[in-house]
Design goal:
A hairpin with a 5-residue loop joins β1 and β2. This protein is α+β, with helices and mostly antiparallel strands. The chain is about 30% helix and about 25% strand. The strands form six sheets. A six-stranded mixed sheet has the order 1-2-6-3-7-21. It folds into two domains: about 250 residues, Zn peptidases (Aminopeptidase, 3-Layer(aba) Sandwich), CATH 3.40.630.10; about 210 residues, Alpha-Beta Plaits (2-Layer Sandwich), CATH 3.30.70.360.
């Protein structure tokens, strides 16, 4: 084990440092699953891998009277980086450093979501001084792109009736419920048309936004780079013969887009007016988002001549659909103060091969019927715009809170004993795999907790060092209390 770290607790940070050397972006699981398989074998522990790539490592109880318990974290991470950051997530290690009480990566996502949970599980498996029952450590794959590992988990793979999910992001909180989610994807087919002579070619960039987790941060009303870009392009198209050559923004379905761009053309005689229109637009957006997006940048620069543009009919339908497509909080919970009930995220716009433009959106709700309602609302926008294809992924169910949970009572009492105050009992608008586990094993008793992580799914992601220590202390004490 690599122990080249001065951070405490050493056993957790050493494993976090070790897995940070291994590429583990969603869909790129081969090396991290091989690492886990080797870890299990090296420590002489029963290690199983299912067809989806989920890893289960079992460790015998330290006491025969102790109750069996499962620990669970997902091993993939969201791969986001700042413009200008040179980093290949398929090969390069995550480089991070400490600044005061925080650890942050260098221009990329850190992967503390859910790497700290993974590291804590490895530390428990490797330890010889922690009391626990028969232990099952479940490492799931591809959580960040639709909970794919949990979806594929077969009944019977997990035998424990108590599960501690280690994928929460505030160490003072104990989670007992989450929203369900589903993705809606629309595809537009377009024809290439030759660019017109006598037009000014330019590139428009939207950058500097905070972005963040589309579940945890959607209620903060941060700017969406895609919506800002489309807003200007739509209005510009009403005043000039705008033709778009390239367009793109966002990357992950569960991240609020931080950056977006378009390469387009307008008649040369509109060139000066273009800059006037943009300056007026920037003034409006900066006024609207002054408190929420202080680092917002919208820039326009001349671009080399583009040979082709998107056909005019498709461009019109695309701009109308993207401008009309809802984004943000749709409804707040009537049962839990401050909890988002339903939301939708206009996540990404990508130009694909074969003259296709793909638009990815994600919908979340604590109520299944409301989840499908907002899904169909988004679908209807793209149907009206004549999208070539509209599809939905399998989605995942919400996790219904159980206030009578035994493990909730144990975990809460342990926290109060350790830290002198009760943890906040919460449900979360983000998606956790817990709902799927309960769906496959209805009697499963679950709580979720973790260290404090800010700005997950963005290059501003950081984890609070002192909270990792308290999280580790809490985890060990709960295992001993069960």
């Amino acid at each position: 084990m690599n122990t080249n770290t001065s951070l405490l607790p050493t056993e957790v940070w050493a494993y976090f440092s070790e897995i940070s050397q291994i590429p583990r972006g969603s869909g790129n699981m081969e090396k991290i699953t091989a690492y886990l398989q080797d870890f299990g074998q090296t420590h002489g522990l029963e290690t199983r891998t299912d067809e989806a790539g989920n890893i289960l490592i079992r460790k015998p109880a330290t006491s025969k009277s102790a109750r069996a318990v499962a620990l669970q974290s997902h091993i993939d991470m969201v791969c986001e980086k700042n413009s200008g950051t040179t980093h290949d997530f398929t090969t390069d290690p995550i480089r991070f450093s400490a600044d005061g009480d925080w650890v942050q990566a260098q221009g990329t996502t850190l992967g503390a979501d859910n790497g700290i949970g993974v590291a804590a599980m490895l530390a428990v498996l490797a330890a010889d001084n922690i009391k626990h029952g028969n232990l099952e450590c479940l490492f799931t794959v591809d959580e960040e792109i639709g909970l794919l590992g949990a979806l594929a988990l077969k009944k019977g793979f997990l035998s424990a009736n108590v599960l501690l999910n280690l994928d929460s992001e505030d160490e003072e909180e104990l989670y007992i419920g989450c929203a369900g989610g589903i993705n809606t994807v629309a595809v537009f087919d377009y024809e290439q048309e030759l660019s017109t002579v006598g037009y000014f070619h330019f590139r428009l960039n939207v950058s500097g936004l905070q972005g963040g987790h589309s579940g945890e941060d959607i209620n903060k009303e941060r700017g969406n780079a895609n919506k800002i870009l489309i807003r200007f392009l739509w209005h510009l198209a009403q005043k000039a013969d705008l033709r778009i050559s390239q367009i793109g923004g966002g990357s992950a379905s569960n991240a609020i887009p931080r950056e977006a761009f378009a390469v387009a053309i307008v008649p040369f005689n509109f060139k000066e007016q273009l800059r006037v229109e943009l300056n007026l637009f920037i003034a409006d957006i900066e006024n609207e988002l002054a408190q929420k997006e202080p680092n917002l940048q919208i820039t326009l620069e001349s671009e080399t001549a583009q040979p082709f543009v998107i056909d005019k009919n498709t461009q019109k339908r695309l701009l109308n659909a993207l401008y009309a497509c809802p984004h943000g909080v749709i409804a707040m919970s009537a049962d839990i103060a401050g909890l988002v009930e339903t939301s939708t995220n206009l996540a990404s716009i990508k130009m694909l091969a074969d003259n296709k433009i793909e638009v990815v959106t994600s919908q979340r709700s604590a109520i299944e019927s409301a989840k499908y309602n907002i899904m169909y609302m988004v679908e209807s926008v793209f149907r009206l715009a004549g999208a070539s294809r509209i599809s939905h992924n399998e989605g995942y169910p919400g996790w219904q809170p159980n206030v009578n949970s035994k493990i909730l009572r144990i975990s809460s009492k342990v926290y109060e004993r350790l830290f002198g105050e009760k943890p906040r009992i919460r449900a979360i608008h983000a998606g956790l795999e817990c709902g799927l586990f309960v769906q496959k094993k209805p009697r499963l008793d679950i709580v979720s907790f973790g260290p404090t992580i800010l700005n997950p799914h963005s290059p501003d992601e950081k984890v609070k060092i002192s909270s990792v220590g308290r999280f580790w202390k809490w985890l060990v004490a709960v295992l001993e209390a069960i």
